[in-house]
Each structure stands twice: as C-alpha cells, then as structure tokens.
Design goal:
about 280 residues; alpha+beta; Creatine Amidinohydrolase; five-stranded antiparallel β-sheet; three-stranded antiparallel β-sheet; 5 helices; binds magnesium ion
Amino acid sequence: MGLFNRERIVGKSPEQLALMRVAGLLVGRTLELLAAEVGPGMTTLELDTLAETHIRDHGGIPNFQLVPGYRHTLCTSVNEEIVHGIPSADRVLQAGDLLSIDCGAQVGQWNGDAAFSCIVGGPEAGRPEDLALIEDTRDSLWAGIAALAVGRPLYAVGAAVEDSLTAAGERRGIEYGIVEDYVGHGIGTSMHMGPQVPNYRVSGKGPTVVEGTTICIEPMVTLGPEANHVRDDDWTVATDDGSRAAHWEHSIAVTSAGVHVLTAIDGGQARLAELGVRFAPIG
Ligand code: MG
Ligand code: MG
C-alpha cells in the first residue's frame, strides 16, 4: 500500500461524471436484470450471456473482456468462491447457493463496475448465516460509502467498512473475515485505476478525496477465516477452509454537494438519506 499513500486523486468534471453515470446505470440495470432472472437450474454461463446481450443492446461493451486473458462479461463466484469465478456451462446453480455476481460495462470511454450477492432461489432457500453474511457485507459497503466526503482521507472508507462488520459480527456472534488480498480502486477511462481503496482499516490516511473523485468500494467478506487461494484456473479466488463468502461493490462519485452512487438505480438517494449522507445530483 505504501507506494500509493501519496497518490493524488484527479477529480472528474461535471460533464465527465454525467457520462460515468450512464455507464454506471447500465451496470446497475444489468445487475437488476440478473437478480430477477437468476434461479435454480441456470448455469453461470447463461447469466453471462444475458449480461453481455443486455450491455451490448444498450450501447456498452463488457469491460471485463478488456482485462488481458479474460473473455467473459461477469465474474460469478459461488459459495466458497470469493471473487473472480469464471462463468461456465458446467456450473449449474442450486437452490441455497450463495452467488456473487460482479459486472462491468464501458460506454464511450467511461466505465462502471458493481457487484452483489444473493441466495439462489431467494432468501427462503438460504441458511441464516448466509443471509446474515450477505446483509452485513452490503451494509459494510454502504458504511464505506457514507465515509466519503471531499477533503476527507480516502482510507476512512476501509475503517468504516471494518467497523461496520465488526459491530454486525458482535451483534450476531459471528467472526467475519475481511479479505485483504484484493482492494477497491479508482475508476474512469479504465475500470481499474489508482488509487487503491482498501476495504479494511490500514495505517495512514491515504490520498485526500477531491471534488469529482470516482472510486469503487468492494468488501469481500467470509464466514470463516479470510485465508484464500487462487485455483488452478488462474482466476477463481476461494476460501482455504471452504467457508462461504459475499462480495458487494458500487462505483461512487463524490462532489462538494455530496455522494452519488453511480451504479445504483436511484443513484443511492434512498439509502444515503437513511444514512444521513447528502445525495449529489448528477447530469
Ligand atoms: Mg467489480
Ligand atoms: Mg472493482
């Protein structure tokens, strides 16, 4: 992390933020579609095809395909898989599976990136601890979002994510693991740009959030220890002990007016209001 501590963030102009909202909203709508369509008996490759068709039909391109060596539109990570699971015709989803879907799109030269976790077959098919993990990981993402403001240190985000998960775990009697091998990131004309955004508490303050900052926050949380490995396919990251994991992500813009969640359908307006955070209109 040390190399990035003094990195300056370059903010986007209002015009650029409006273009990033277009890309972000396409990602949000694609994930909304997948959440509605996913069910037992589907393969993760079918979800990938749905997503690619939706993105291309709406004037975007799947930006995961711009990552060297990756050919799919989504990452689909099931149960003990944390992130970077490769969609496959052989992976048939079962009721009760914990599925994390990560999706990105580029529209023009601007990018969006977001992820959510769900139980295949709906919450009633889920184990209570999986439902808790999904909810608490999502809430930790929003706690990180709520820590964003112009003039504040970027690493306040990871501290807020970690504090949220610690409090939730204590409330439930679960000791969550937060994955530290993968981090959030800046986003703009590429999906992955500086600065790094740790989803956990680190020493130091990191760069200062400036007007027009656009970043991705993406906590990856495990029911057991966070120790993990990359499988022989060179992509899939799974927990060492087989315990399940969840992953939530949004692309977010910060201005002096407040926060706009670029990949949320409503820009984050409803949830930000609950959290007492000012919503910044864009466009
Ligand atoms: Mg992502
Ligand atoms: Mg990301």
